[in-house]
Amino acid sequence: NAQGEKHWVKYHFISQQGVHGLSNDEATKIAGENADFHRQDLFESIAKGDHPKWDLYIQAIPYEEGKT
Length: 68
What we know:
Catalase_core; two-stranded antiparallel ribbon
């Protein structure tokens, strides 16, 4: 910073779409049928105009505190 102090910076990207998980059984079934399921879902969403969005947060930690 302007005072010459060092900081650790941690970036947090939070999805605005939320987090959707799959059970182990669902994931196994989907992976066996379509290994590119998540990529396909992303591309199809973008094609429909439903672009992914994230909020970005930063956490600045004084250098000495971050060493512990």
